[in-house]
Specification:
With 164 residues, the protein is α/β, with parallel strands linked by helices. It has a single domain (3-153), classed as 3-Layer(aba) Sandwich (Rossmann fold). It has 5 helices and 5 strands; from the N terminus they run βαβαββαβαα. A 5-stranded mixed β-sheet has the order 2-1-3-5-4. The mean pLDDT is 83.
Length: 164
C-alpha cells in the first residue's frame, strides 16, 4: 500500500483517445524509481480498483473531449464528479465512475489527473495526431515532477521487491 501508480487510460486503437497508453509507453522507457508502477489501463474497468487501492498515490492520464484546442493538457486533482473535465472520453466504464468507486471504497489517496483535449474519435488508428503527440513528452516530464513531489508519501521501505 505504498507505491505510486501511473495509470494511462484509453483505447490505443482509436488514435488520440489512446494518449494515456502512449504516455505510459513513453514513461516505461525512462529510469523511474522502484516504487513507481506504470500500468496500461486500457479502456478502464473495475479491475483497475485493486491496483489503485494498493497505491499510495495515483497519477492518471486520459483524453477528454472538452472543446479546448487539441493537445491542451491540464493537471487536475479530482475528488468529486464536479472536479472532472466536462467529458472524459468513453471507456467500458467511465473514468469518473471508476474514481468515484475508488473514493467510496478506499482510504484517502493522492489522485492526480492529466487530461488531454482531443477531438471526438472517429477513425481507427494507433497513431496520435501531431498536436497530441507533441504533448506526450511534456506530460511525461510533468509526471516525473509529480513522482518527485509525491515520493514523500511512499514508505521508506518501499522498493522493487516489496512495498507495504
Amino acid at each position: 500500500m505504498g507505491k505510486i501508480l501511473i495509470l494511462g487510460v484509453g483505447n490505443y486503437l482509436m488514435g488520440d483517445e489512446g494518449v494515456g497508453v502512449h504516455v505510459i509507453r513513453y514513461l516505461e522507457k525512462l529510469q523511474l524509481p522502484a516504487y513507481v508502477e506504470c500500468m496500461d489501463g486500457g479502456t478502464g474497468g473495475f479491475h483497475l480498483l485493486e491496483p489503485m487501492q494498493s497505491a499510495k498515490a495515483i497519477i492518471l492520464i486520459d483524453a477528454t473531449v472538452d472543446g479546448a484546442p487539441v493537445g491542451t493538457a491540464r493537471r487536475l486533482e479530482p475528488r468529486f464528479s464536479k472536479d472532472y473535465p466536462r467529458t472524459l472520453t468513453a471507456h467500458d466504464i467511465g473514468l469518473k465512475d471508476l474514481l468515484d468507486s475508488f473514493h467510496l471504497l478506499s482510504r484517502e489517496a493522492n489522485v492526480i489527473l492529466f487530461a488531454v483535449s482531443i477531438e471526438p474519435p472517429t477513425d481507427l488508428s494507433t497513431e496520435l495526431s501531431p498536436s497530441v503527440a507533441a504533448v506526450v513528452p511534456e506530460i511525461a516530464r510533468s509526471v516525473v515532477a509529480e513522482i518527485e513531489r509525491l515520493k514523500r508519501f511512499v514508505p521508506a521501505d518501499c522498493n522493487a521487491q516489496s512495498c507495504p
